Amino acid sequence: MLSTLGSRSRRLCYQLHRWTGIAACLLMLLWFASGMVMLFVGYPKLTPWERLANMPALQPATCCIGPAPLMRADTGAITLTTVAGAPVYRLRDGHGRWRLFDARSGKAVDATSTALALASARAFVPGASAQYLGLVEEDRWTHSRALDAHRPLHQVQLDDAAQTMLYLSSGSGEVVLYAPRSERLWNVVGAWLHWIYPLRNHSTDPLWSWIVIIASAVATLTALTGTLAGIWRWRFTGRYKSGARTPYRERWMRWHHLLGLVFAAIVCTWIFSGLMSMNPLRIFDAQGRKPDLAAWRGGNPGRLRLALEPAQALRLLQARGFRAVELEWRVLAGQPFLLARDVAGHTRLVVMENGTLTVREHFAQATVLQAASRLMPGVAAQGGWLHDWDAYYYARAPEAMMGALERRLPVLQLRFADRQENWVYLDPATGEVALSVDRRQRLGRWLFSFLHSWDVAPLLRAGPWRAALLILLSLGGAVLSGTGVVIGWRRLRANRRAASRAGKAGSSRYN
Fold first, then answer.
1. In the listed set 164, 180, 198, which residue is the last one of a domain according to the structure?
2. Is 186 a domain residue?
3. pTM for this one?
4. Residues 6 or more apart from 439 whose CB is under 8 A from it?
């Protein structure tokens, strides 16, 4: 009985691999090919460094009025920056809506204006002429939910050497996505194809999500059943009558079997981790109590801000050799401060210490620890300062999915003893919670990011060697999938011919 059950289980495994593999191998071939492109060309995005690269330094003498007249009690963020070559205040209220004001006159600026969008685009790439293409709610390059607060988006085509496409916020007038022509073309066979974006219509698209989840689950089943079938068919001791350890004499079947045994592990882990990237059934969502970011800040700039005019702050920064292109009003642990950025993305803080305005590179450790105590009151925490990347807090190259995230060192890492085992990374250079992950999210990091991207520190430091290894393994997976496509196509063709012959034979009996 056990023998019969085992025989039936094996037959079911073979049948599942055979019939799911016909479509799954084609899909996996596309995934492996497009994944190789994604190693070198990322999905269009705007990194912080690209955003700041061509901004002029703010000048104390000609810059602006103070922001106080523009503030409301619910103002959650206010930044002095440059849009279309002119200094402006960018405000965001408690509902996430943007407002834009001329920093010299205090008058409201219409960020939906076509003229402003064109001027902003020309300032972003100096010397290029621009063609306005219209407002778009969402297209193939703008699915990111991070853009939701800026929709609809102005779309502008530049005639620079890179044939750049820009998308600009209709709320703040700023460039929010940068897409050169070469990047767009490569992404048609890269990320756009890899993520099956032809089937995606909106930034939140449940139908697309489930299509990808189901397709990934079927492909994972194909890879697992293929691995089992390959092991069962391989003669580890002894040989078949042909003298080979594989039973397959036909070329395509033999190569599919051999390649499957060599690349089975990487194919299974990559397809499975692709499934995990979709967070099926939201299994990696943070659970329970979360760190209280509002308490960490202890207020908003609409209610708490330094008694300091922008011109005075800029002079203080210039005296320290720092030429700011942006000033942002912020609050940490109930204490207001200014965060300044220069054209390279470096930061400085303007804080009040013992009644004196001071420019610092980062907050004092005591200040960060005091603010950290507000994150989860009553919960014990352990931690310390990290001066190197760890398994969860690390930087990636710009082309990577997380390549636009700002990551600095040192950071304060806190491990809370709550039920969800929350870990928090605090950036003393900006006063931000740079990363917050609980136990489920850390598990998701290993099942997706690690298995899919091999993004642990030793491999990331390997640079081109890591890329070469990933290319080699991807080629193996692609060739394995390609042989499966050929085998599946030939089987379907043979079945169609057999069905055609059977149909002809049946009709001849009645003629």
1. 198
2. yes
3. 0.91
4. 420, 421
- Tell me, yes or no, whether 343 lies in a domain: no
CA distance 251 to 343: 59
Residue among 54, 391, 39 nearest 194 (CA)? 39
Q: Are residues 190 and 212 in the same domain?
A: no
Judgement on whether residues 95 and 234 belong to the same structural domain of the protein: no
CA 189 to chain centre: 18
Instruction: Decide: 362 and 351 in contact? Cβ < 8 Å.
Output: no
| Domain residue limits at 470 | 1-38+206-283+462-511
79 beta partners: 90, 328
Q: Are residues 54 and 169 in the same domain?
A: yes
Residue 422 within any structural domain of the chain? no
**Total Cβ atoms within 10 A of residue 293:** 13
**pLDDT given for residue 73 in this prediction:** 72
In a domain, 417, yes or no: no
pLDDT in tens, the chain (511 residues): 546 666 888 899 999 998 898 899 999 999 999 999 999 998 999 999 999 999 999 999 888 888 888 888 788 889 999 999 999 999 988 777 888 999 999 999 999 999 999 999 999 999 999 999 999 999 999 999 889 989 999 999 999 999 999 999 999 999 999 999 999 999 999 999 999 998 887 878 899 999 999 999 999 999 999 999 999 999 998 899 888 999 998 999 999 999 999 999 999 999 999 999 999 999 999 988 999 999 999 988 888 888 889 999 999 999 999 999 999 999 999 999 999 999 999 999 999 988 889 999 999 988 999 999 999 999 999 989 999 999 999 999 988 888 889 999 999 999 999 999 999 999 999 999 999 999 999 999 999 999 999 999 999 999 899 999 999 999 999 999 999 999 989 888 877 887 777 766 666 655 5
The verdict on 165 and 278 lying in the same domain is no
Provide the number of structural domains found in the chain.
Answer: 2
Q: Which distant-in-sequence residues (6+ apart) come within 8 Å of 250 by Cβ?
A: none
103 and 125 belong to one structural domain: yes
The Cα 372–Cα 368 span in angstroms is 6
Rounded Cα gap, residues 30 and 193, in angstroms: 8
* Domain end point (choices 198, 219, 242): 198
Do 95 and 186 belong together in one domain?
Answer: yes
Domain co-membership, 491 together with 507: yes
**Beta bridge mates, 154:** 135, 168
CA gap 359, 366 in Å, rounded = 17
In a 13 Å sphere around the CA of 508, the CA atoms on its Cβ side amount to 6
SS3 464: helix
Q: Write the single-letter amino acid at 72.
A: R
Residues 27 and 68 in one domain: no
Mean pLDDT score across all residues of the chain:
91
- Nearest-angstrom CA–CA distance, 144 and 195: 13
